[in-house]
Write a structure and sequence with these properties.
Serralysin-like_metalloprot_C; 18-stranded mixed β-sheet; Putative secreted protein (Type I secretion substrate); about 375 residues; mainly beta
Length: about 375
């Protein structure tokens, strides 16, 4: 017969110890429940933590059914091997819950609230439910899996470790990688992606995303939407894509490509390159891009216009001619400045076809790659 423990509406502390197949009901209060048996009879327990901000610790993955209940709860699994064919099922319930799991193949539901799933990457299934939910693989850094890195595709709903183990991800909006080299891909909605240390690749897809590369040589793609991209330290590459994006390179020699839309570019410290590939990348007037910290003299920053054909009436990819403050003469391919605004004429009509506000009042030909 299963051992049944019924708690109170206060703060309960319950430990499984040598008992097998226990049923634990703790009702109200901020409770702590410890399933600490780690042999082959440690599983097959049933837990209802009830209301309150509860902590459930589980030492053996083996057919446990656990319901954290309402409140901002924490579930921790130490990673002991499961019994053959027996998997845990853990439900967060209401509230912003936190799951820390080193299990091998169990199912976790956040239910309602903004939940966070911490995982090493062992074939688990995470379902965020309603709310804004996050999967975080930083636990890998303190496990035997350290150094493998993780590949996360929120749009397709899976994560994969280097050795090919997959985890199923459902209704997860945000992702955090490891200290190794990770790939994180968002969805068509709003996502927050954090690469951490290592040389990471982050791709927002649709929606208004926030991408944080962390330390290392990272590549960030905002894609569609009004995105915020943060390279942090390292020589990073930031691509805004379509939309009105904010790009911050951070420390290091970074490449910033705003793409289409009204973009705001900050290179940070280091010799940064601000690249424009089409005249539509930075339109004339209020929709022009802004470079906030262009420092060609003190840091070696440069504006790269080489991908833009400076003369659309002539075949090939033609280079610009820098004419300083002089007015356009009606010759295609002229690049000039007035005040802080840089402008180029690519069709020879004597009018600007694109503009960039780089914040300086004097520019030289050496400030550009033409």
């Amino acid at each position: 017969m299963a051992y049944v423990y019924r708690g109170t509406n206060g703060d309960d502390y319950v430990v499984q110890n040598s008992r097998t197949e226990v049923e634990i009901y703790t009702y109200g209060g901020d409770d702590e429940i410890v399933l600490n048996r780690t042999d082959s009879r440690g599983g097959l327990n049933y837990v209802e933590a009830g209301s309150g901000n509860d902590l459930v610790r589980n030492s053996f993955e083996g057919g446990n059914d656990i319901f954290l209940g309402s409140g901002n709860d924490v579930y921790k699994h130490s990673g002991a091997a499961r019994a053959s064919g027996e998997y845990d099922k853990v439900h967060g319930g209401d509230g912003n819950d936190r799951f820390e799991v080193k299990t091998y193949a169990s199912d976790y539901w956040g239910d309602s609230g903004n939940d966070t799933f911490y995982s090493v990457g062992y074939r688990n299934a995470f379902n965020g439910g309603s709310g804004t939910d996050t999967v975080n693989y930083s636990l890998q850094d303190s496990s035997s899996e350290k150094g493998r890195g993780i590949y996360v595709d929120l749009d397709k709903g899976f994560a994969k470790a280097v050795d090919g183990r997959n985890e199923k991800l459902t209704s997860i909006e945000n992702a955090t990688g490891t200290s190794s080299n990770d790939t994180l891909i968002g969805t068509g909605g709003k996502n927050i992606l954090r690469g951490g240390n290592g040389n990471d690749q982050l791709e927002g897809l649709g929606g208004n995303d926030r991408l944080y590369g962390g330390a290392g040589k990272d590549i960030l793609y905002g894609d569609n939407g009004n995105d915020d991209l943060y390279g942090d330290s390292g020589n990073d590459k930031l691509y805004g894509g379509s939309g009105n994006d904010d790009l911050l390179g951070g420390a290091g020699n970074d490449l910033l490509v705003g793409g289409s839309g009204n973009d705001f570019l900050v290179g940070g410290s280091g010799a940064d390159t601000f690249r424009f590939t089409r005249v539509s990348d930075s339109k004339v007037g209020s929709q022009r891009d802004v470079i906030d910290d262009f420092k060609p003299d003190s840091e070696g920053d440069v504006i790269d216009l080489r991908d833009i054909d400076a003369n659309t009436g002539r075949s090939g990819n033609n280079a610009f001619t820098f004419i300083g403050k002089d007015a356009f003469s009606g010759t295609a391919g002229e690049l000039r400045y007035s005040g802080t605004i840089i402008s180029g004429d690519v069709n020879g009509d004597g009018r600007a076809d694109f503009e960039i506000d780089a914040g300086l009042t004097r520019y030289y030909s050496s400030d550009f790659l033409l």
